[in-house]
Write a structure and sequence with these properties.
This protein has 170 residues and is mainly α. The chain has a single domain (5-165), classed as dinb family like domain (Four Helix Bundle (Hemerythrin (Met), subunit A), Up-down Bundle). It is built from 6 helices and 2 strands; from the N terminus they run ααααββαα. β1 and β2 (123-128) form a beta hairpin.
C-alpha cells in the first residue's frame, strides 16, 4: 500500500511536536534548577540575526498546521504569536497537536497533485502538493524544531539526540 499524504504529514508533524514538548519541559526544569531567568532562555538565539527560541516554536507550530491546511485547501486555525512563557508555548504546541489529531485524513486524499501557492517576501512560489510537503513544509518544520533544540543545547540544557528523535511510531 502506498504511503498517503496524510501518513507522510500528520503523524510526522505530531511526533515532532510531541518531542518538542519534551525538550521544552527539560529546558524549563533545567532553568529552574540552575536559577536561570526563564525569560532569558526564551529570548535566546543562536546568532543575532536569527529568531529567538519563542519564535522558533511558533514557526514550527505554524509549519505543521499550515501545511495540512494548505494541502487540504481549508482555512488554518489562527494562533496569534503572543507566547512569552514556557506554559504558553506548551499550550500552543498542544493546540497544534489537537488540530492535527482532529484533521480529517480524507481531506488530504489526492493532495499530492494539488498546487500549493505560497506568498513569500520575494514573490509567489507554486509547488505540486507532494513537492510542497517533502521539499518545503517538512524541511521548514524540522529546521525550526532543530534550531530550538540547538538554542537550548547551546544554553547548557542537557538534551539528548533521542529526546529530539523520540521513540519511532509514537
Amino acid at each position: 500500500m502506498p504511503l498517503s499524504m496524510y501518513q507522510a504529514s500528520v503523524p510526522v508533524f505530531t511526533h515532532g511536536l510531541k518531542n518538542l514538548r519534551v525538550i521544552l519541559s527539560k529546558a524549563r526544569d533545567h532553568a529552574e534548577a540552575k536559577k536561570i531567568d526563564l525569560a532569558v532562555l526564551l529570548a535566546s538565539r543562536l546568532y543575532p540575526d536569527m529568531h529567538p527560541l519563542t519564535r522558533q516554536i511558533q514557526i514550527a507550530s505554524d509549519a505543521a498546521k499550515l501545511c495540512v491546511a494548505r494541502l487540504a485547501e481549508v482555512p488554518p486555525p489562527s494562533f496569534p504569536d503572543v507566547e512569552t512563557t514556557f506554559d504558553e508555548l506548551d499550550e500552543r504546541i498542544a493546540k497544534t497537536i489537537a488540530y492535527l489529531a482532529d484533521f480529517d485524513a480524507a481531506k488530504l486524499d489526492h493532495s499530492e497533485e494539488r498546487v500549493v501557492k505560497l506568498n513569500l517576501p520575494n514573490g509567489t512560489l507554486e509547488l505540486q502538493g507532494s513537492r510542497y510537503l517533502l521539499h518545503f513544509a517538512l524541511p521548514n518544520f524540522y529546521f525550526h524544531v532543530t534550531t530550538a533544540y540547538d538554542i537550548l543545547r547551546h544554553n547548557g540544557v542537557e538534551l539528548t539526540k533521542f529526546m529530539y528523535l523520540g521513540k519511532p511510531g509514537e
